[in-house]
Amino acid sequence: MEASKEEYRDYFQKLLAAIDEFEVSSENIYNMDETGFNIGVAEDRNIIVDGTVSIRYQAQGGHQERVTSVDCICADGSSIPPLIIFTGASIMSNWIPRDFDTS
């Protein structure tokens, strides 16, 4: 989806107005970003084929696992350590901090 320069300007004017109205300090403004990537064995190959032959070729990688990374930075310049999420079959109780609040 495309947005125009005016739409961005309007958005940020409204954002700044809300920050002023509710007196939000920079230490309470965060930006989060989630991204995924593959880890594992992948092989790079170059293949030369005859361009006149109408056969479709498809790359096949090795064993790869999808991993998600969540990053968060504060407007005051501080940041929260990144959260890395791996695929898992079960949760082990020793992975959860004893003082973790579940409420």
Give a short synopsis of this structure:
The chain has 103 residues and is α+β, with helices and mostly antiparallel strands.
Q: Give start-end ranges of low-pLDDT stretches.
A: none
Q: Please tally the β strands and state the result.
A: 3
**What is the percent of helical residues?**
10-25%
Q: How many whole angstroms does the radius of gyration measure?
A: 23 Å
Beta percentage is 25-35%
Count of individual helical segments:
1
Q: How many angstroms separate the termini? A: 38 Å
Shape: flat
Strand count, sense and barrel status of the largest sheet are: 3 strands, antiparallel
**Helix and strand sequence:** HEEE
Protein structure class: alpha+beta
Q: How are the strands of the largest sheet arranged?
A: 1-2-3
Average predicted confidence as pLDDT? 82
Description:
It is a single chain. The protein is an alpha+beta fold and 103 residues long. The protein has a domain of 72 residues. The protein has 1 helix and 3 strands. The model has no long low-confidence stretch (mean pLDDT 82).
Defining key terms:
single chain; 103 residues; alpha+beta; 3-stranded antiparallel beta sheet; 1 helix; 3 strands; 29% strand
SSE map:
Layout: H1 5-21, E1 30-40, E2 64-74, E3 79-86
Antiparallel strand pairs: 1-2, 2-3
